[in-house]
Amino acid sequence: MRVLLTGAAGFIGSHVHRALLRSGHEVIALDLMVPAAHGPDAAAPDGIHRVDVRDLDGLTPLLHGVDVVCHHAAVVGAGVSVADAPAYAGHNDLGTAVLLAAMAGTDCRRLVLASSMVVYGEGRYRNVRGELVAATLRQSADLDRGRFEHYCTRTGSALHWEPVPEDAPLRPRSLYAASKVAQEHYAAAWSAATGATVTALRYHNVYGDDMPRDTPYSGVAAIFRSALQAGLAPRVFEDGLQTRDFVHATDIAAANVAAVEQPLPGFTPLNICSGQPITIGEVAAILADARHGPAPVVTGEYRPGDVRHIVASPEASQRVLGFRARVDPRVGLADFAFAPLRGAAAPDAARR
Ligand SMILES: NC(=O)c1ccc[n+]([C@@H]2O[C@H](COP(=O)([O-])OP(=O)(O)OC[C@H]3O[C@@H](n4cnc5c(N)ncnc54)[C@H](O)[C@@H]3O)[C@@H](O)[C@H]2O)c1
């Protein structure tokens, strides 16, 4: 198949690029090389067109003869500052809208969208009676005294988390998350209006070679790793028992190949995860052990708005795409302790 891959020079995009080529697909690759991801003045690697997804005229010739678009171009991160909002809205949402408009002028009717677990916000919880309960923002008074779990506001007893299915409500917690929800909504509306199809892959915590180093926008595994590399103990917030799903970039790439090769009807969101939950404290301990570095320090610090537990169900992606992650996070994270990382961008680069 002929695939247009956006964000092809990025961390995940470059893994997807290699996996598509290995599977025999023809890839038309583009990337704007934004400073937030690549630092100032980075040139596009050979074979990647330097094109902005917000530029209809730039996109149109690249879409010629394309069967599927695999859309990874985005400005990423947790929304460190409100000043980042225009960058998220511009690159992620306007960019997606322009891409969909450009596709409407062609025969290409299939989109694979890089979405994220951040669309859910908090994970899924039940109270002691087994009823689903929407977890609200934790109160700073609770967090200050180390009460990190969610509690039922009626009974005061702790809520229990469980894996999030794709039909869970979307409750974005950050500006970045809001932009990822908006991308999905644009894509779903485009699918409904045109009969085109969208597979929205909701990645969980992705790690692997060439992950960005320790900018405020990079993932916690890379931040722990950089601390260890500098001879420092990884600093673990809260009590370290926050639960996540860490999925290797090579598995993300395999999920993209499966989604490109397997047309699904309408708008289909799918969790892409390892299916093996792990705590943040365990992630820090695995990396520290692997590097023979100082043991992690659990600091009790917290960031207002942080999600306590977000873990996905891999069942739907297994059933409809036949996708199963191969890398066990406890093995993959130990390897990641020595993986090559990408250099840091300027701290305020997301705004450019
Ligand atoms: N890294 C994760 O853990 C994670 C998790 C869930 C979802 N995602 C999604 O996966 C995708 C790739 O993320 P990543 O971690 O590889 O980030 P990245 O920053 O490494 O890659 C994104 C790429 O998009 C490019 N880009 C940004 N704006 C552009 C524009 N207007 N036109 C063309 N190119 C543009 C950047 O230059 C960069 O190379 C994103 O859509 C992101 O939201 C990532």
Short note summarizing the structure:
With 352 residues, the protein is α/β, with parallel strands linked by helices. It has helices at 11-22, 35-38, 56-62, 85-104, 140-144, 175-194, 220-229, 249-261, 280-290, 315-321, 329-336, and strands spanning 2-6, 26-30, 48-49, 68-71, 110-116, 124-126, 132-133, 160-162, 197-203, 205-207, 211-212, 235-236, 243-244, 246-248, 267-272, 278-279, 297-298, 341-342.
Question: Can you describe this structure?
Answer:
Helix content is 33%, strand content 18%. The protein has helices at residues 11-22, 35-38, 56-62, 85-104, 140-144, 175-194, 220-229, 249-261, 280-290, 315-321, 329-336, and strands at 2-6, 26-30, 48-49, 68-71, 110-116, 124-126, 132-133, 160-162, 197-203, 205-207, 211-212, 235-236, 243-244, 246-248, 267-272, 278-279, 297-298, 341-342. The strands form six sheets. A seven-stranded parallel β-sheet has the order 3-2-1-4-5-9-15, sandwiched between helices. The protein starts with a strand and ends in a 10-residue tail after the last strand. Bound molecules: nicotinamide-adenine-dinucleotide. Nicotinamide-adenine-dinucleotide is lined by residues 6-7, 9-13, 31-34, 37-38, 52-54, 72-76, 91, 95, 114, 116, 180, 203, 205-206, 219. Residues 6-7, 9-13, 31-34, 37-38, 52-54, 72-76, 91, 95, 114, 116, 180, 203, 205-206, 219 line the site of nicotinamide-adenine-dinucleotide.
